[in-house]
Predict the 3D structure of the following.
Amino acid sequence: MLNFNDTEKAFAYKTNKQLKKASRLFSLMQYGSLVKIGTVLTPLALKWHLPIKGIIKNTLFDQFVGGASLEASSPVIEMLHQHHVDVILDYGVEGGEYNEKKYDHSLEEFLKVIRFAATKKNTPFISVKITGITSFALLEKLNLSHYQSFEFVSDEVMTNKINLLTQEEKTAWENLLQRAEKICQTASETGVGVMIDAEESWIQDPIDYVTILLSRKFNKNKSVVYNTLQFYRHDRMSFMREAYQDSLQHNYTFAVKIVRGAYMEKERARAQQQNYPSPIHENKSRVDHDYNEAISYCMGENKSISLIVASHNEESTQWAITSAEKNNIPQQKDRLHFSQLYGMSDNLTFNLADKGFSVSKYLPFGPIDEVIPYLMRRAQENSSVSGQTNRELMLLKQECKRRGI
């Protein structure tokens, strides 16, 4: 059993000043009403050009973001390298209204991130949102809308959906495939992995399908393309099994990142509003059960699956370690990798790294205006996730006490 309470290892990279600063921030995030007001007023204040960027920079930005640009993130990347921690670079662009020029610009930015990652010793992955390179509306139109019986997206079913598109929409679909393929081709050539982010359930089917097409092409001899499965959805275990069978049928490595999920409140609200069964598990215990079952499935005998356990949950992390040991899974990046968000769960990240496990920090970067949506989600998550802020704060205070500061 790993000791995830070893705060000396967890916060070795922080100075006394940084440690106290983080402790004050998480103390503030305990107040849900304060966070709720802040997440509403902050975007408005920026829109009205009020002088609050300095406050954001010295609080949320410094805690959760690598830097205002790729180059500005280099010191953080190097610091993590010194502690044997890898990096998943996140250019956090998300789609809005239909705009092909904007998507082409995003494509060039993703290629720039890949080439930058290839120059760093500890940056084996980048993260990509499909809504950054195509329109939300197109993906929504291609979704199967099968709220009562979730199923794996077959070639035949998706082809039928594509045939119903207008000519303009078909062109947009082809443009999406070309952009996605160029990203993965560049990543394959430079030795960088691409994690395709999971998004809302009502656009997830075409995202899954694009990821499957890319996996069939680029995962023949190595793991390049990783799908992301959100296990707060009650259909993801069955999807995982069928996706693995597809990898056997088409002779490629099934590479997957498993998360609990990021859109739960939004998903439940939409299901209620539009009167369809929620795709979300009824309670957290069912989510935890499926998440750990997914780990056991991927770590099972005679399977060759590249698994990334992206979790802040200590129990699931230990479950993955135990499952790997039970099945003699080697500590290799392309077989089992752990990941946590930068600025959170350092007790997991740095203690895993200290014991030789392959582990990374998910590191967003960009100007304050562009990363505000990400920062607001982090603030909301830390105030709403049961026990998360308390756990972070307890560990920070524990290390402050140990240092006598």
User: Anything to note?
Assistant: The beta strands are 86-91, 125-128, 193-196, 225-230, 254-259, 305-310, 336-341, 359-365. The mean pLDDT is 91.
